[in-house]
Please model this.
Amino acid sequence: MKVTRIKKSLLFLLLCACTSCSQYGQLERVAQLPGRLNEVSGMVAYSSETVWVIEDGSNPDNIREVDTLGRIVRELEVGNARNKDWEALTASPDGRMFIGDFGNNINERDNLRIYRLPDPRTEKGDKIEAEVIRFRYPDQQAFPPPDSQRRFDAEAFFYLEGYLYIITKNRSEPFDGTAAVYRVPETPGDYEAERVTELNLCMDRRSCQVTDAALSSDGSRLVLLGYGYLWVLDHFGEEGFKSTPRRIALQTNTQLEGVCFVNDTLLYLSDEKSLGRGGFVYRYPLPFLKSQTLPQKKTEGPQSP
Model:
């Protein structure tokens, strides 16, 4: 009798393992976003139970917490901020949240901003106050520049060791498949961004523009999101941007705009509603790196800086 139970337990574990393997490489729906959230442009997770999201320009100056049933469980108005074009959301290890107000479709803005918020989980009311980080690109001379130099839009950033790293969305004509990386300090102030490097991704304009980014909490992986693709920089903590981006096809043509780490091997993604498609939160598992032999322990801080 005892042996039979052991065999059944082993069979159950094997079935679970096979199911998990079959999901790798596929987007799996977690929840449908609430009906009034049509243009989610950034997200961050402090746990696997909820995500905090923002919407892009012309939408309210609010951050919202959404659970895995697709319900808004909390909504905070952001004071001292205006949603000119909010395009990305990230957080620092101590829980502070950052909103990237740097959407710049035609490269004409001279008022790029990042809003720094306290940890939203500690706020008692329905409003949260922002501090302002103002910045400019050192190599932009005209607003807008000529078509061949339109490289100053951005929809992606992440936090690392006191800096916010911004990855641009290349809108140049002709398109050359690159994305520039800049950084600014995470403290409020007025800065000229520091150009860090340039990434070579791919040559298809639609697929190869970066729409969001996320760094794992252990620093081992940087993920960039595009329309239908992920680029994964493995061993980022050791190699930084010298790591060769590994492209993964997501087998979807919806407008993916948000990505965040839930833990060091699990991503949540979101897409905008467009033409009757999209408007979901998805999960996407990544394989363990050799240095990741066991799942990381749950921490109190956010899992997706």
Observations:
- Residues 2-23 form the longest helix (22 residues).
- The two ends are 50 Å apart (CA to CA).
